[in-house]
Amino acid sequence: MEEKEILEKVEEGQKKNLLQRIDWKKIWKYICEIDLYCLLAPFCMLAVLYVFCAFTGLWPEEDNIYNSFALQADSWLKGSLSLINGENYSYLELAIFNGQYYVSFPPFPSYVLLPFSLVYGINTPDGKITVVFVLIGALYAYKLCRELLGNERKEIAFLISMMIYIGSNTLFFSVISWVWFMAQSMSFTLTILALYFAVKAKPGRSLFFWACAVGCRPFQILMFPVMIMLMIRTWTATETDFKLWNKIKKQWYKGIPCFVVAISYCILNYVRFGSIMEFGHNYLPEFTREEAGQFNIVYLEENMKKMFRLPEMPANEAFNFFNSDGIALWIVNPIMILIVITAIYKLIKSRDRDTAIVLVILGTVIIHLFVICMHRTLGGWHFGNRYTCDLLPMVAAGICLSMPKSDKFLVVPKLLFIYGFAINMIGTVAAYNYWI
Fold first, then answer.
1. Are 168 and 335 in contact (CB under 8 A)?
2. Is 9 a residue whose pLDDT tops 70?
3. pLDDT tens digits, one per residue of 100-124
4. Half-sphere exposure for 34 (CA within 13 Å, toward CB)
5. Exposed (0-12), middle (13-18) or buried (19+): which is 254, by Cβ within 10 Å?
6. Share of the chain above pLDDT 90, in %
7. Residue 186: which residues within 8 A CB-CB, separation 6 or more?
8. Rounded distance, CA 210 to CA 261, Å?
9. Which of 36, 174, 301, 367 is the most buried (most CB within 10 A)?
10. How far is C-alpha 371 from the chain's CA centre?
11. Quick one: pLDDT band at residue 422, thresholds 50, 70, 90?
12. CA 155 from chain center: how many Å?
């Protein structure tokens, strides 16, 4: 027998021995234990994004013309806190301060883009980055709902997670990476992560992601009490001698990453605008020209009307859904209807330790809506009511904590999801094609 044949037989024998040593039953058991919804959630989101791109031609590979965060990151890398070319991109809503032009939005998205700017300059792959954030958000939205509902109710967890992404107005800003929408998409995902790790009682991660979310959408700071209550809920359920003060004394250092992120915002704001609280929006020309400025109670009454206004409904014609400042929040975010229903059920039928958290969530939602209505605008050009989407991760958590256990109730979220998906998918495609 030739040496080559001997070697081949030896190798064949080694392969057989290896295959025999593998515990195939254990591998099959592991495969069966994989939660397929963890794959299905981002896959469904990816499928919807593909359909949107097919109808609009706005693919993630396209250059981002509203690339404020890339311009800012590139300027920082080149040693300038203001935009380095000194050009006023009026369509980018730049802040004007001491004769210099600055990006007027909270800075965290530019933090994310810094390593990409090293390679791509101002042509960062914003579309692809946004898609990654959206897919991560869809996955962790499901995981958040599953943690609160329990493993035996995975189907409902999946339904609620899809409601806040493709069955709500979140869809409108998840499909594209323009500066306003990129920041909101990042904030949405980071908010979900903050809530998920709060439920898991991991304060370091929760507070860190919360700080990052605030650096995209500042009013996410209002979510802090909800996060703390969710952590306490888990600690009291898993520790017999839990005391909050003792927990703080033992784990205070886990708040350092959050503190570092917050300090970075303060330093950046101070060296640019002379105030640790000012990120630039107050120096936008559209607000400096307004006597009442960016935020004022004088805007409240008019914005409250817009927050709940119905589309114009001419006889035998298409409805006018408006293309700026929004329509009734429940029309495009029907999950808001669901939390009202489930919260009422919770208060009447099954009060328990979670009732207080649901009430705090509802209170936070009301406060957040009140603050939004004090802003001069309710989102500028868009379909729906996108500012209110910042509330939806909290709303989803509240629904999971108050959801009736009866399967008969499931017809309600299913109908709301079908309606929400239909109106937001059609409305989003229509808006980006300028049909409305």
1. yes
2. no
3. 999 989 999 999 999 999 999 999 9
4. 10
5. middle
6. 74
7. 108, 109, 112, 130, 133, 212, 213, 216
8. 10
9. 174
10. 19
11. very high
12. 21
